[in-house]
Design goal:
The chain is an alpha+beta fold and 212 residues long. The chain has one domain (2-209): NADH Oxidase. 34% of the residues lie in helices and 21% in strands. It contains 6 helices and 7 strands. A 7-stranded antiparallel sheet has the order 1-4-3-2-5-7-6. Strand 3 and strand 4 (108-114) form a beta hairpin. Helix 3 runs antiparallel to helix 5 (150-174). The protein is globular.
Length: 212
């Protein structure tokens, strides 16, 4: 118990100290006309657990995040629907240098914590550590203007599932490898990402270039 407490404390200290070292990543414009036809993307969609070496292209990262839950209309509505349009799902991007959260309005990645937290997602599945990017999907239940209970958690889980499918289809269209997963160290990630009890930590997607 004491060992677990010290681990969480060290993570919290790292979060507070490290977030200052990261800078906001302003993403370039997403490619809204590239990729492959949508029905071919459905045909190509699969769970991939092998990743080629190297980081994602900046254009692919931008397009993937926009496709996952970006703004696609002048009124601010998203590529992924959400219950009563509460836009409750946040996407956290874990990379070697740190953790970021996607800001759809600015189309940017805002820093959360410096340091490599990808191991907290592995849950004993070593293949995840080879992915240069892991997207963690979180529903902020307070946005439903109701007390977080089993009902709001279910709605949050459904919204997370929709974003997850967007990621899978977008990866197929971009020729990237990914797999949706539920396994992760909840305690470590909650500390690293500064999540509250009202945040529902749902799924994660390791993402990388397809291994030939």
């Amino acid at each position: 118990m004491r060992k677990k407490y010290l681990l969480l404390l060290s993570l919290a200290v790292a979060v507070m100290a490290g977030a200052q070292e990261l800078k906001t990543i302003k993403l370039e414009a997403p490619d809204k006309s590239g990729g492959i036809p949508v029905f071919k993307a459905f045909a190509e969609r699969k769970s991939s657990r092998e990743f080629a070496e190297g980081s994602l292209k900046s254009k692919d990262l931008s397009t993937l995040l926009w496709a996952a839950n970006g703004i696609n209309r002048p009124d601010g509505k998203r590529t992924a629907p959400s219950a009563i349009d509460k836009r409750d799902v946040d996407i956290y991007a874990l990379m070697s240098e740190g953790a970021y959260v996607y800001d759809p309005k600015a189309h940017a990645l805002n820093p959360v914590a410096a340091g490599d937290y990808r191991a907290s997602v592995s849950g004993g599945q070593e293949f995840t550590k080879a992915a240069p990017l892991i997207l963690v999907l979180v529903s902020d239940l307070t946005r439903f203007n109701a007390s977080p209970d089993d009902g709001t958690k279910l709605v949050g889980a459904l919204d997370i599932g929709i974003v997850s499918q967007n990621i899978s289809i977008a990866c197929a269209g971009l020729g990237l490898a990914t797999v949706p997963r539920g396994t992760m160290n909840q305690a470590e990630l909650r500390a690293a990402l500064k999540l509250k009890d009202t945040h529902y930590l749902g799924l994660n997607h390791p993402v990388g270039n397809m291994k030939k």
